[in-house]
Amino acid sequence: MSVIAPYDALLLDLDGTVWAGGSAIPHAVENINACAASQCAVAYVTNNASKGPDEVAGKLQAIGLEANPADVLTSAQAAVVLAQRHAQPGANVLVVGADSFKELVRDAGFVVVDSADDNPAVVLHGHNPDTGWRQLSEAALAIRKGAVYLASNLDSTLPAERGFMVGNGSMVAAVTNATGVVPEAAGKPGRAMFDLAQEKLGVHKPLVVGDRLDTDIAGGVAAGMDTLHVLTGVSGPRALISAQMEQRPTFIAEDLRVLNSCAGDFSSLAPAAQGGFTAEVEQQTADGVVIVLDGGNADATWLQALRTVLSVAWSLEGAPTIIDVRSASPVAGTAIKAWW
To answer: Which domains does the chain have, with CATH numbers?
Structure first.
């Protein structure tokens, strides 16, 4: 039986969840491998379209994960599926993206072009560190001539070893600014990638795991799947407290150690009063809400404090702005400092 029962699969984000800039995030590799060894299916669902499944699988293997190309689903793959709904095989497609993205497009029966003069039926836009003004301009020209604009994903940033780099969404924004056309996106936060992953694995109840509320978690929620948010990447406590309904995870954990420490019981990871903490609304004005955190056992953790606050913040009608969280006890004060 899987150690994460009742779930039969993990749908894992990569950047900020499994690795950062290609280096394994602490506790990720050994805990994912342990899940895989316990009859749990594992798939890697990534918005990064700059690398093909073979290359991604190779990088996963290099950090010690037991992965193969069939375990990887990229937004580039999902984008090709989306393109097939707009154009017939043999149609010209202008690809702004990596060579691996272009190869996927060719494999789907399209003709890859790099000029608007070739009258492409579709412009596919995915992340590529080498994309520059010329490529973006050809895309803009093609779109103005009537090509359908599709993006692999709309992530504004890309986590890397040095920090957050410019993501595909920021490059897409340049084309949108020049054309007025907002592309349909194949990747997260849409549900398509999660539906494809579930179908590919043949599983019934997957658990979506990610670090970013507006993509990983929102996509899992849109797909009707339970979600686990890990605090190893983009979205931290502040983002969680202010999260809108469609971006609220089922469970919150510090990192992937939780996959094997919970023995399948994730109930303690859900927002609820815990660790001896209590939380209540101190005031609610037109500007927002102030929540007061009190109590806390001597051995209580900052994460228990956060889940306690979330249980109140997420219960408020109308999803008001949380303008402050204040402490009413020394333990609460220490906890808030850890994540505020």
So the answer is: 9-47+189-260 (3.40.50.1000), 76-185 (3.40.50.1000), 271-338 (3.30.300)
